[in-house]
Amino acid sequence: MTFFEATDPVFNTYVLGNAPVRQLETGFSWVEGPVWFGDAGQLLFSDIPNNRIMRWIPDVGVSVFRAPSNFANGHTRDREGRLVSCEHGTRRVTRTEHDGAITVIADGFDGKRLNSPNDVVVKSDGTIWFTDPHYGIMTDYEGYKSDQELPCHVYRVDPDRGSIDAVLTDFQCPNGLAFSPDESVLYVADTGTMFDPEGHGHIRAFGVSDGGLSGGDVFHVVDPGKSDGFRVDSDGNIWTSAADGVHCINPSGTLLGKILVPELVSNVCFGGRAKHQLFITATTSVYSVILNRTGVQRP
User: Which helix or strand (DSSP H or E) is residue 136 part of?
Assistant: First the structure.
């Protein structure tokens, strides 16, 4: 069985010939939002239509972490190791405190309800950045069909100031997002509006400075499929979901190779013993593969 497809010879140094793509668990409806907790030795991920967050522990298996989850989608960890989650059902971003209490980070902007927060990252200064497309309110499959009150924007929350700002406002539907290792670049995917097959399917790159964001040119067009979610390795390569698996794109925007997965991939994250294990959520299953790369997100 072929697990990898190189379009640049360097990709062959990123993968290991004796490290296969493994299906860890299956039987879900639409899995998303993987996040690794190294200090707990567990992976959390969302099974959105079934309204639950799942937990996978090596050599133990899968169990329910939280149900109902308010149709949670993307997750990350903040600088104190707390779970930060995007919830479709409540149209908000929340933080799970160390004692299990839930704190609402954002649920509205300019006096209106958010759409359905999708993916989230936390910068080293503690600010929380999230995308707010309309996918979770367009049907009852991943939340509750509801009226859209706001355009689809990217937001930044400063928990210390208690402020929320719309920092990117020219997307059709922003989706996955991640910072480069030195946080000088913010990558944001635009996957187009629901039910529009001609909608955008690219990743844009923005320069990050104290003065805000600049640029925003198209960094890479994913083909086939669209970039739903992605993460970055320590060399700045982007590992993104696509219709045929996971694509590896270098910091110049060039496709280096693919990890082939037999289901439509939604998202990825790095984790495991050395942050060299790539966890892949793909339609009904969770997969993983050991790479000769390490992720940059909090372990």
Answer: helix 135-138
Which amino acid belongs to residue 93? V
Q: Please say whether the beta carbons of 97 and 66 come within 8 A.
A: no
Closest by CA position to 249, among listed 263, 275, 273, 268: 268
Bridge partners of residue 103, in order along the sequence = 95
For residue 187, how far is the Cα from the chain centroid?
11
Span 101-121, pLDDT tens digits: 999 999 999 999 999 999 999
Give the other-Cβ count within 10 Å of 262's Cβ.
Answer: 14
Whole-number Å distance between alpha carbons of 35 and 83: 9
pLDDT, one tens digit per residue, over 139-186 is 999 999 999 999 999 999 999 888 999 999 999 999 999 999 999 999
The DSSP bridge partners found for residue 87 are 72, 92
**Spatial CB neighbours of 140, under 8 Å, sequence gap ≥ 6:** none
Domain boundaries, the chain: 25-227
The token pair at 71 is: 């149709």
In sequence order, what E strands does 108-229 have?
A: 108-109, 112-113, 120-122, 128-131, 154-158, 163-168, 174-179, 185-190, 202-209, 212-221
CB 81 within 8 A of CB 95: no
- For the chain, the residue count is 299
Q: Give me the residue label for tokens 């360097």.
A: 10
- For residue 241, is it left (φ>0), alpha (ψ between -120 and 50) or beta? beta
Name the β-bridge partners of 73: none
CATH class for the domain made up of 25-227? mainly beta
198 falls in which pLDDT band (50, 70, 90)?
confident
pLDDT in tens, 242-295: 999 999 999 999 999 999 999 999 999 999 999 999 999 999 999 999 999 999
What single DSSP character describes residue 99? T
